[in-house]
Amino acid sequence: MRRTLTITAIVIVAVGLGVWVYFSFFVDSADIIVAPGGSATLPVAGQGTFPTEETVGATTTPTNAPTVVSARLIKISAGPVVPGVAVTNSAAASASSSPETIVSYIERQSGNVYTYLVRTQTPTRTSNKTVPGIQSAVWLPDGSLAFVRYLSGEDFSTINTYALPATGAGGFFLSQNLSDLAVSSAGILSLASGVNGSVVSLSRTDGTRSSELFTTPLSAIRVSFAGKNQYLVYTKPSASLEGDAFLVDSAGRFSRIAGPKNGLVALASPSGKWVLISSANGSALQMKLVNAATGEATKLPVATIADKCVWTDDDSALYCGIPMSPPSASYPDDWYQGAVHFSDRLWRIDVAGRYAQLVLDFTKETDTALDAQALALNPSRTTLSFVNKNDGSLWVYSL
Prior knowledge:
mainly beta, 29 strands, 3 helices
């Protein structure tokens, strides 16, 4: 009896530790299912390469065909797909043809990579590597490489980050147990946090030549690029705790641009000139736009969680999933953890004109409530994709 109780206690502690790691490091994708412990197909850093189901490089068309909802709105995949999508423009095949828009995404169940051609409405599998249990994906701007993150180990206490090529050929691991990750053409921005603070490093997009950028005594933070030689750091959002947002220069100097605010989430524009700030006042969401140079803040007429927005590459506008009548809850915690779901409309926020324009009312296009996350926009600003957090389906809209 004593042995049975001991084994039971160990199992409970292990499961509890896995749940803690899950919500601590993957707070923005809390509705994603982790792979079962001991999965033979789940790779671990330093223990060989990924197995494949078929010959690497083989391409197939998935049986899950796209659904044309309207002339401009298409459900690419019923999903679920991994949050994190790349939308890119290909070069024109000839002088008489126009560039194709390509949506690259990962199927959550298998970890296979797919591309979708918007003009021809053609989905194709480009990688057969089986990587189940992926929590999130961050893509290089050209869609050639996705940095995928997942938990491993019997107690799900190890966070692995793997660079998964869209073609399935090659790939490499980054350091284990990274707290956050951001990528751009400038390189890989990685965050390692512990009880004594955090270290932010920058490496090439192939994972080489890693160098330390700056350190901070703050441990529970998120980090991203904010233009050239500038970075955005903000405390992990919590409804019950006040958070702050900082811009950090190349010398490691911190300048606070927002806060303290409960539930603070920040999103820098590509050039770093603007920072979108969302926060929560009880169950009410608030959103403002901060000029990084002057610190001047402009309250916006619509509100959502900043993670539900995407910037255009020229800083001119934002596209956001704005919830209609969001339920009473603790934001953003309850949304991250899947305790509440939204029914969104798509809005465009014009930065220069300081106005918000309704782009798409999902309820008039489809009977399905859409809770937009992982928004992505192509450089020519003609195509917007997003993942419906309610069911993990992938959608694309022609702007």
